[in-house]
């Protein structure tokens, strides 16, 4: 079967970039990305491609090339479903905030709505592709809804989890380590798998396209994120030990990373991982394991989250301790709010939790991030519900000039590893600050010795002060 029309439901950080790259690589396939969020779709259609809602290096150029040719962004979900032979579901699957499984299970209400909408609209057979990260066995729920409400049509459900990393999404999509496609091992299921393999095979070498049964594919995505997050928590746990023993976490990471069995990636100690996926997907794994009565498995993975929360809290406490045990009325400048560099995504960013802790201690915070908008910072803080939104606006301000943001501060805290922070005129920053001037490097990106020679008191993750 040759796919000519693809629809993707969900124009977010995954749907947008993924479909833009498919459209670029397959100019003969019409790709329509739909969303119920009108503002988001309008931003994807903005004449100036610098205003698209997702910031990713290289993405604007890809959108500029394909948009209007074979890439379309629309709010007409029904029409796009009707036209497509293959429908990707790329909607959000956040952690549940209510009811059974609150705080752990994935909230699948948006997934279910998509399935019901596809069943209602479809007039012909469809291949439905799970692009969202889902709990293992979700495909059976989708199949159930589609076959019971879908007018006797045939629906094949594939799992095709996305492994892109924000900040390098375009690079990862153009040259993925692998593409994973899971489906039913029946003749119809294998045909559907082949149809999707044929799409990716336009630019991904065949040996990098892995096919499995649908359950292995669903579980592999949760497992990949759990392993990655576990590496971060492992190195972060040792960073605390380094601070007490005068071992240096950067040296330890280099020493173990050269072991080919361990490898050098994901060994950077930091203020803790953020992003919309790691925490949610591990909590999901924990929840599923517990639901099968596998308490040891659940406890094992839950510890990765416990360690990460500890790391964020520990960083805030370190700031307070070094500012003579009180930050009340003191200004602290934050460099970075995004959860990592080269993205404007702030979901679960460590900066939010560190700021919340310091605001509870009555400090005053001024932040600067090269890509995050002011309203987003306040949305993140207000979401926590720790204080009124008026108080958040009074005690935290968002600046656009990093030098002004640091002026009059007792301390500068680096929360995101943006490259530009390394190249600042740190002497100028020092001159404008109150003394003693502290730098808390939550990402280990600054030159400690250079800063010390300027006069800063430097505190970095995983090294003794
Ligand atoms: N962000 C990542 O780096 C990443 C990486 C891999 C996988 N994932 C997974 O991909 C999925 C999507 O993540 P995201 O970061 O793109 O989320 P997102 O919140 O940025 O985007 C989801 C979009 O879906 C839309 N939506 C929700 N319900 C809808 C409906 N019924 N009809 C039409 N549109 C609807 C929302 O309006 C939103 O714009 C999640 O399951 C996530 O776990 C994310």
Give a written overview of the molecule:
With 465 residues, the protein is of the alpha/beta class. The protein folds into two domains: 5-204, 3-Layer(aba) Sandwich (Rossmann fold); 278-460, NAD(P)-binding Rossmann-like Domain (Rossmann fold, 3-Layer(aba) Sandwich). It is 45% helix and 14% strand. It has 18 helices and 14 strands. The chain has helices at residues 15-25, 38-44, 59-66, 77-83, 109-121, 138-149, 169-174, 187-200, 214-245, 249-257, 278-291, 295-322, 350-360, 374-384, 389-395, 402-406, 426-432, 448-454, and strands spanning 5-9, 30-34, 71-74, 86-89, 126-130, 155-159, 179-183, 209-213, 331-335, 364-368, 396-398, 411-414, 438-441, 457-460. A six-stranded parallel beta sheet has the order 3-2-1-4-5-6, sandwiched between helices. It has a six-stranded parallel beta sheet with strand order 11-10-9-12-13-14, sandwiched between helices. The site of nicotinamide-adenine-dinucleotide (NAD) has 27 residues, from α5.
Q: In summary, what is this structure?
A:
The protein is an alpha/beta fold and 465 residues long. It has 18 helices and 14 strands. It folds into 2 domains: 5-204, 3-Layer(aba) Sandwich (Rossmann fold), CATH 3.40.50.720; 278-460, NAD(P)-binding Rossmann-like Domain (Rossmann fold, 3-Layer(aba) Sandwich), CATH 3.40.50.720.
